Every structure is written in C-alpha cells, then in structure tokens.
Amino acid sequence: MSAATAPAPPDAAPDAPKPRTRAAVRSGGLVLGLVLLVAAAALSLAVGTKQIPLDQVWSALFGPSGTENDAIVRDLRLPRTLIGAAVGAALGLGGAVMQTLTRNPLADPGLLGVNAGAAAAVVTAISVLGITSFTGYLWFALIGAAVAATAVNALGGGRWATPVRLALAGTAVNAALFGYVNGLQLWHLSTLDEMRYWSVGTLAGRDAALLLKAAPLLVAGALLAFALARPLGAIALGEDHALALGTRVRRVRVLSVVAITLLCGGATALCGPIGFIGLMIPHAARAFCGPDPRWLMPYCAVFAPVLMLVSDVLGRVVVPPSEIEAGTVTAFIGGLLFIHLVRQRKVAQL
C-alpha cells in the first residue's frame, strides 16, 4: 500500500474544535443577561393585579392610547419598570465598586453609611419639616447619603483611608445614624407611620418624574464607576502592585466613594433601602466572570436589574390583590441564593 493511501495511525484524530476563549464565555454571559433583562421587563409590564397579554403591552407602548390597559402600562407599569431597572443597575454597580475597593467579597454599599445617611435625612425631613412627598424624600435622601459617605471617608482617613479603616468607620457611622433614626421615630409616632413605608424599599407609587430628577446622578455615578474599572482592578491586586503600575491609589479611592454615593444614594432616594442586591449580585457574578472589574461591572449592571424586576413582579402576585414590597422580596430571594453560594465548595474570591 502506498504512503498516499496508507491509513492514519490509530492514535491520530481529527482536529478538535478550538475551545471557547474566556472572553467569548464572558460575552455570552452578558448576552444571556440582556435576554433575561428584556424578559424581566416584559413580565414587569404584563404581570400585576390585572394580567395584560404581551401583544396588548406592545400595542400600549407603541400604538395609539385609549384603553384602560394602555393607561395601566404607560402610566403605572412603565415608570415602575424603568425605575426598577435603574435602581437595580445602580445597586449592582455600587456593590461591585465597594467590594473591589475594600477587597472584601462580602462588602455592601451600606458599609459607607449610604443607607443610614439617607434614612436619617428622610426621618429628619418628615419629623422636623413635615415633608411627606416622594420628591422631598428624594433630595433629602441624596443629601443625607452624601454627608454620611463623606463622614465615613473622613473618619477612615480621607486620602489616606484603608479598606479596614473604611469598614470600621462605616460600621460606627451606621450604628450612630440608625440609632438616631429609631429614636426619632419613637419620639414622633407620626414620623414612624410615614417612614415605615419608605424604609421598607418599594417601587410602588413612584412616577417617571422622580426618575428624571435622579437620572443625572445615577448616570454620573455609572460613568465614573466604569471609568474606575481598570485602576480598581490594579488596587484589587494590592496597593503595592497598584502603585508599581502607576495607579493613584488615594485618588481612585476617593472617586470610588463618590461613585458609590451617587449610585446608591440615588437608588435609595428613589425607592428606599433595598437590601442584598449590592451584596449578592457582584459576589455571584464574580463566580462566572472573575474578579476583573472591567467584566464584573457590566455583569452587575445587567443582572442586578433582573433580580430587582423579578422580585417586584413576585411581590405583586404572591398575595393578590395586595403587594409585598420589592425590598422584602429581594432580601428573601437574595438570602436564599447567597446561602446556596456560600455552601458551594468553591466560593468566588477577589
């Protein structure tokens, strides 16, 4: 038999397909997240006390208005869905920045006192100034979040702050502010009645005007967070490595605090404190995309709104015709998922 027709050796095999690269897998995860986000938004528009078919949702969004379903979709559910997506993305991004900055995969945006500062400002506005509108809550919550985050950063050492000192300062400021909130609520029972609806965290009753007022802050915080992705990745390797790579560590730390304040302060001002999203989503995403903030932040910006919207939809249908606030559902779902994650053999690390 000639060499040209000789059979291939037994150990020869056809060329194996090239394995997918890490970047391709990560990109596929983002595409999946976008598909899930569209599906969650569709559910948020269609599901509620009154179920509306998806074709009628489409008609209400892009066709002439005139029916009751059109009014429900356009005036009630569309603003609620947009606010839920914006709040979820802001909390997810804020959590990613916080965990990378502190090199702690269990850090929460509330560690900087954002939630406590917002709550203290809102309870003061209600009890002292008699403000009861969501618009009033918005600006006081933003100011309170900014003041608390600034105080934590200053107590943590300002430009020379370290992750450990920031965590200790945040714990102290949180305890003091929440003590102030609880004391003022007990002193003014009318304040307790107003405050308890805001403090549970809900998307109900919010309109598009609130989102328009908070949107510049959320957009600015998101742009700043993405701009800090590369230097934060260097800081995650350790300050000595970051300095060797030319990273201005102190400047990045201060700007990161600003980004967290804008994102989480704006989100808290819009719908009250929403727990677990900023803690659980970055931690879960890190298991799939790794610790690189250049991938972690897009993942959080896509998957956190999914959790937020799904939680809001579940809250509408669990005990009809009443609703369970989104903040309660996110805490329940996030707690279960987080317990599942920490029980795994391999837990994502920074």
UniProtKB/TrEMBL annotation:
Coiled coil: none annotated. This is Iron chelate uptake ABC transporter family permease subunit. It comes from Streptomyces ziwulingensis. InterPro entries: ABC_BtuC-like, ABC_transptr_permease_BtuC. CDD domains: TM_ABC_iron-siderophores_like. The keyword Membrane applies. The chain crosses the membrane at residues 28-48, 81-98, 110-131, 137-155, 167-188, 208-233, 254-276, 296-314, 326-343. Belongs to the binding-protein-dependent transport system permease family. FecCD subfamily. Keywords: Cell membrane, Membrane, Transmembrane, Transmembrane helix, Transport. It is a multi-pass membrane protein. It comes from the Bacteria. It is found in: Cell membrane.
